[in-house]
From TrEMBL:
Record CDD domains: HATPase (cd00075), HisKA (cd00082)
Protein name, entry field: histidine kinase
Molecular function, one GO term: ATP binding
SUPFAM superfamilies in UniProt: ATPase domain of HSP90 chaperone/DNA topoisomerase II/histidine kinase, Homodimeric domain of signal transducing histidine kinase
Keywords: ATP-binding, Kinase, Nucleotide-binding, Phosphoprotein, Transferase, Two-component regulatory system
Pfam family, one: HisKA
Domain Histidine kinase: 216-435
Length: 435
């Protein structure tokens, strides 16, 4: 089938080339005929001028010179249309040029005798026979042109017939190719369906594993948290009269409640197959203030200035649990790497703002004055178990930023990191869609 298509294609290209060649020769023949017809017309004008003079009328030199110049011009253009290998054409053109020049000489001689008053000599040297001879040579060349035009027309007809015979071959080849492509398309569609089914099975399996893992983790965490919450409530009642103890215990109780909300949010997230709930939402300012309060004591102990820039009221398409986990991981990470407070200004700033052309997103930034992220690790720092060289001696497994990235992207957002404004430290930017 392919060989047949190639053969048909080659034959078609060859036939098309032949057709162009034949049409070019027909066009050239037509241009030659026009030039030859013009030579013949000007030769007749020259003969008529000579004939009138031989009959006793004044010789019109202006008319004769114009006709002769036009004839010579057309003969020169006719020669330009002829190639060196067209020997028969060249021979006929030479004959036309020779007889035309003979006619010019005869007419000039007759005109000179008439001007001298030699009527008898002019009559004996009549140019008309020579003009007729030149006209006959033009007639023979015209016949040759007509014959060549007819031959080229026949060749064009033959080429058209060849192309018509090739049409069924192309139809058969096209049908074969169509069947081949259809078979390949069906095979690709089946393979795509199989791969999609396998991917769905893997996704379902991973979702089930994620849910089972989350349930186990939630169970293992909630048991001690429940006991801790009960003891904290009892402590609040017992030390109600001691303001310092009561305040610390209440802060502990709020942290326990927040841990339960985080567990609930992550559990809901895991049970949904790693996708957020369609109607999930949270007010950024409320979650941010709540999470930041957990790190006030840690920041004071580390001599780090923790600055929470009050954000406007904005709601993101993310529940409070995952958002708390995102903010908590980023703030904890910043406090861990900003330093121990013994050298220079140690500062962590958290801010949030509306972004996008129509405020369709919220950007939350956590900026620190620590050593920053080494060059070349701006992407890999979000991979699981990857830790920067600056984290040597710091506790952790390298899962915090990986968890943040997964939660952000699952909620149709993205996270990036860049150096701080002064070139020091790191600035993590989380972008989440508004609810």
């Amino acid at each position: 089938m392919i060989l047949g298509f190639v053969a048909a294609h080659i034959s078609t290209v060859t036939a098309a080339g032949d057709l162009r060649s034949h049409l070019t020769r027909i066009k050239t023949t037509g241009m030659r005929s026009q030039r030859l017809s013009s030579v013949r017309g000007n030769l007749h004008r020259m003969g008529m001028a000579a004939g009138r003079a031989e009959r006793g009328e004044p010789f019109d030199r202006t008319e004769y010179d114009a006709a002769r110049a036009a004839a010579e011009f057309d003969l020169a253009r006719l020669r330009e249309l002829t190639s060196a290998d067209e020997t028969e054409q060249l021979a006929h053109e030479d004959e036309v040029a020779r007889t035309t020049r003979q006619a010019e000489v005869a007419i000039e001689r007759s005109a000179a005798l008439l001007a001298a008053g030699d009527l008898r000599g002019s009559h004996e040297a009549s140019s008309q026979p020579i003009v007729h001879a030149a006209d006959a040579s033009i007639e023979r060349l015209s016949a040759l042109q007509m014959s060549e035009a007819e031959e080229e027309s026949q060749r064009v007809d033959d080429t058209h017939r060849r192309l018509r015979h090739l049409s069924p071959m192309f139809d058969a080849a096209a049908a074969g190719f169509a069947l081949l492509l259809l078979g390949l398309a069906i095979k690709a569609a089946r393979q795509h369906a199989r791969l999609t089914e396998e991917a769905n099975q893997v996704a379902e399996q991973r979702a089930a594993e994620l849910e089972l893992f989350a349930v186990r983790v939630a169970h293992d965490l909630r048991n001690p948290l429940g006991g801790l919450a009960l003891r904290t409530e009892l402590g609040i009642e017992r030390f109600a009269s001691s303001a310092p103890f009561k305040e610390e215990l209440q802060r502990t109780k709020r942290a326990i409640d927040r841990m339960n909300r985080i567990i609930d949010g992550l559990l809901t997230f895991a049970r949904s197959g790693g996708h957020p709930q369609p109607d999930a939402s949270a007010v950024v300012s409320e979650v941010l203030v709540d999470v930041a309060s957990d790190f006030v004591t840690e920041a004071e102990v580390a001599h780090v200035e923790l600055v929470i820039e009050p954000p406007p009221t904005m709601t993101v398409a993310c529940s409070a649990g995952p958002l708390s986990s995102i903010l908590g991981n980023l703030i904890r990470n910043a406090l861990k790497f900003v330093g121990d407070g013994t050298n220079g200004n140690r500062r962590v700033v958290v801010r949030a703002s509306s972004t996008g052309n129509r405020n369709e997103a919220v950007t939350i930034e956590v900026e620190d004055t620590g050593p920053g992220i080494p060059a070349g690790m701006e992407e890999s720092i979000f991979d699981p178990f990857v830790r920067a060289r600056t984290s040597d001696g710091k506790p952790g497994l390298g899962l915090g930023l990986a968890t943040v990235k997964r939660l952000v992207e699952a909620h149709h957002g993205h996270i990036t990191v860049r150096p701080g404004p002064s070139g020091r430290g790191a600035c993590f930017a989380v972008v989440l869609p508004v609810a």
